[in-house]
Amino acid sequence: MILDVVSIFPDYLAPLDLSLIGKARRDGLIDLRVHDLRDFTHDRHHSVDDTPYGGGAGMVMKPQPWAEALAHVVASGAGGARPRLIVPGPGGVPFTQALARELAEEPWLAFACGRYEGIDERVYEYAAQDLGLQVSVVSLGDYVLNGGEVAVLAMVEAVARLLPGVIGNAESLVEESHEDGLLEYPVYTKPASWESSAGVTRAVPPVLLSGDHGAIAAWRHQQRLERTAARRPDLLHSSAALTVDDLAITSARPADAAELTTLQRACWVGEARANDTHDIPPLLESVDEVARGLQEWQTWVVRAGGRLVGSVRARSHPDHPAVWQIGRLMVAPDLQGRGLGRALLAHAEAQAPSGTAAYWLNTGTRSERNLRTYRKAGYRVQPGEGTFAGTVDLLKRRR
Ligand code: 6GU
């Protein structure tokens, strides 16, 4: 990968000669070239900045040195190749592991380190329109640095370590914070029992010494969840982090009626499409009607990060008490396919009273996805039309 960095402080990038990144450079995996912006000035004072039009504090970087520097970088490319241009700045899109992975796929990156109040806006237009570069303004986070150099150090390290051969053990790239939406678990090494100078002895969590790999994996997963909840609760809301094991199924409360109404509408739109009708109660019910349903059925809900993401309800059949009716099985559209629906269904079955002989379900004749799920769970479609027009009933014997 080719990396060009333009800065008024080229020495700032010296740390990139160290450690794994320095070795990658020596191994030829990274070709890093640092350019001094002042080499592209033509006045006696090598000035790169001037006062802002429209007034205001600070100085703005002039367009001419930047245009020349970027043109110089682009001219070094063979056969029409162009770098992707990254401009570090607090006003950019967030730099994330996902963006690092994206940038690691690029053959050539150029970084333009701004200082002061920023670079004249026309430089961005020039880079995009005249030089034909894809330009991305990228921020490390919600705080302000004096210039882009420190950000480039961070971004180059995050990107370079993803390149094949830079890190010896590719597995260590996988088991990492931010690779799958959760923070990393705590780690320990020898000695198993360690006494600090103050005379306090601290032991490694016993499970890590147990040799029980299943128990260790479960403990680590739990630690990751607790850590993420404590330090980065925002990450738990992202569906990437969610698995069925992390979610508790609880009884619905009357106050859930409004959210349930929203969720069931979202979930039954697909049913309306598949069955070519809007005449489906869960699609049309008002909040009051959903609230009444909560009185007539036992209803369970699943929340993820405060958000209601799934539900199911059940009751003994009013005329056939040995039949346990299950209905309104729903999972938020963005979280389907993770086993949440199957877990809710199993929960509803497990709540059946002891006299139950069979579980009963009902779904649209053409609701292929539901039918597949229910068949897999052991339900069989009953002959003839179901309890409601355009539906089929399904039954599963209780074992
Ligand atoms: Cl990328 N640059 C500057 N100057 N300040 C920042 C930043 C970048 N990210 C956060 N603050």
Description:
The protein is of the alpha/beta class and 399 residues long. A hairpin with a 2-residue loop joins β11 (298-304) and β12. The relative contact order is 0.08. A seven-stranded mixed β-sheet has the order 10-11-12-13-14-16-15, with helices on both faces. Strands 2-1-6-5-7 form a five-stranded parallel β-sheet. It has three domains: 2-168, SPOUT methyltransferase, trefoil knot domain (Alpha/beta knot, 3-Layer(aba) Sandwich), CATH 3.40.1280.10; 178-238, Orthogonal Bundle (Trp Operon Repressor, Chain A), CATH 1.10.1270; 242-397, Aminopeptidase (3-Layer(aba) Sandwich). The chain has helices spanning 19-26, 63-75, 97-104, 121-130, 149-160, 171-174, 213-231, 233-237, 257-275, 281-284, 287-296, 340-350, 368-376; strands at residues 2-7, 31-36, 49-50, 60-61, 84-94, 108-112, 135-139, 193-195, 201-203, 249-251, 298-304, 307-316, 323-331, 358-364, 380-381, 391-397. α2 (63-75) runs parallel beside α4 (121-130) and α3 (97-104) packs across α5 (149-160). It is elongated. It is 33% helix and 22% strand. Residues 88-90, 138-141, 143-145, 147-148, 151 line the site of 6-chloroguanine.
List the helices and strands and how they pair.
Elements: E1 2-7, H1 19-26, E2 31-36, E3 49-50, E4 60-61, H2 63-75, E5 84-94, H3 97-104, E6 108-112, H4 121-130, E7 135-139, H5 149-160, H6 171-174, E8 193-195, E9 201-203, H7 213-231, H8 233-237, E10 249-251, H9 257-275, H10 281-284, H11 287-296, E11 298-304, E12 307-316, E13 323-331, H12 340-350, E14 358-364, H13 368-376, E15 380-381, E16 391-397
Parallel strand pairs: 1-2, 1-6, 5-6, 5-7, 13-14
Antiparallel strand pairs: 3-4, 8-9, 10-11, 11-12, 12-13, 14-16, 15-16
Bound molecules: 6-chloroguanine.
The site of 6-chloroguanine has 13 residues, from β5 and β7.
